[in-house]
Specification:
By secondary structure, the chain is of the alpha+beta class. It contains two helices and four strands, in the order αββαββ. The protein has one domain: GMP Synthetase, Chain A, domain 3 (2-Layer Sandwich), CATH 3.30.300. β3 and β4 form a beta hairpin.
Length: about 90
């Protein structure tokens, strides 16, 4: 019985430790799936991943300027991950 308990605890701790890595991989895949379409929308200059105020992962859309029609074209959630917007202005290469 003691051996079974140790095995169960090990398996559970391994699953919980891997949960963040699985989530990170998932959000990266979701970003990649939507990135080309999002970047083709007016005033979108970047697509990234960040954390909200509750330390939960979000997909961040960087906009050159506020554009309501672009925001309307993007769902509030992409495959279960919330979308946040930041006005970052124009992006220039140096």
């Amino acid at each position: 019985m003691k051996r079974r308990t140790i095995v169960i605890i090990f398996v559970l701790s391994t699953l919980f430790a891997c949960d963040k890595n699985v989530m990170d991989t998932d959000i990266k895949q979701i970003k990649k799936q939507h990135e080309v379409k999002i970047l083709s929308l007016p005033d979108v200059v970047s697509v990234g991943i960040g954390l909200n105020s509750a330390d939960k992962p979000v997909i961040i859309i960087g906009l050159e300027k506020s554009n309501q029609s672009t925001r309307t074209a993007i769902d509030d959630m992409l495959s279960g991950y919330p979308v946040a917007y930041e006005i970052i202005g124009p992006v220039r290469s140096h």
